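User: I'm new to structure prediction. If I give you an amino acid sequence, what do you actually give back? Let's try with this one:
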Amino acid sequence: MTTIWKYIINLHQDLNQTSLCKIDMPDGVKTVLAVTPVGYPREGTIAIWVEFDGEPTPTRTREIMVVGTGQSFITTGKYVGSAVNGFVWHVYDCGWV
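Assistant: Good question. You get back a string of structure tokens that encode the predicted 3D arrangement of the chain. For your 97 residues, that looks like this:
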């Protein structure tokens, strides 16, 4: 059975920098969407949704890169989406650590 899970990312550093976030999530998830979360008006808060097929498994650490518009960056990650909440953030899934 497939389920969708939500994770909140809070960017606590300089908003002009690229952020590399590490999130523990079940092995085998697939990132599907990144947007501004409803009910989280604070700048620097992003929600990502992941799709998981099967029974929960032990967690692994996944890297998510968040980049502000106009910022330079290098990534091999997959583009997941963009979020707008005072700034425009672009989210990339860089895979398992």
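You can read the tokens as a compact description of the fold. Here is one thing that stands out. The first strand starts at residue 2 and ends at 10.
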